[in-house]
Amino acid sequence: MPTVDQLNQELQKAFDPNVPLQEKVDMVQGAQADPELINRVAEAAKKAGVTVVVTKVNDLGNSVTADANLTINGQVNPAVVPFVAEDGRWKLEKGWACNMVNLAQLSSPACGQ
User: Fold this and answer.
1) 4-104 has which CATH code?
2) pLDDT tens across 47-80, in order?
3) What is the 3-state secondary structure (H, E, C) of the chain?
4) Cα atoms found within 13 Å of the Cα of residue 53, Cβ hemisphere only
């Protein structure tokens, strides 16, 4: 099971536009259908002024949920961010990533758009 610090580091890396795509592509479940999906999620987060800080990790077996503080334009909201074990690493669940993309009115082939 990943730790709070590990998930926070992964999210920070995923949302960083300076981290090369090849280092981020495996961070989202199903990203092989759209290697740019993680950058779309990062773009959506930036567009909405979103930051995510994991505060607790809940073990669900082959998946975990992360209790997090989701800050949108300065307003802190509690959130649950799902991660799944895939290819030997913890990845952001595709449905959550696609929801972020949809909320920002963006699209991705990985999300059926």
Assistant:
1) 3.10.450
2) 888 889 999 999 998 899 999 999 988 899 999 9
3) CCCHHHHHHHHHHHHCCCCCHHHHHHHECCHHHCCCHHHHHHHHHHHCCEEEEEEEEEECCCEEEEEEEEEECCEEEEEEEEEEEECCEEEECHHHHHHHHHHCCCCCHHHCC
4) 7
How far apart are the C-alpha atoms of 112 and 96, rounded to whole Å? 14
- Rounded to two decimals, the pTM is 0.86
Tell me how far apart the alpha carbons of residues 40 and 5 are, in angstroms, rounded to a whole number: 24
Signed CA dihedral, 53, 59, 60, 62: sign only: positive
Which has the closest alpha carbon to 101: 2, 53, 34? 34
Residue 2 CB neighbour total at 10 angstroms: 18
Tell me phi and psi for residue 27, to 5 degrees: -90, -10
Please give the order of strands across the beta sheet that includes 75-86: 50-59, 63-72, 75-86, 89-92
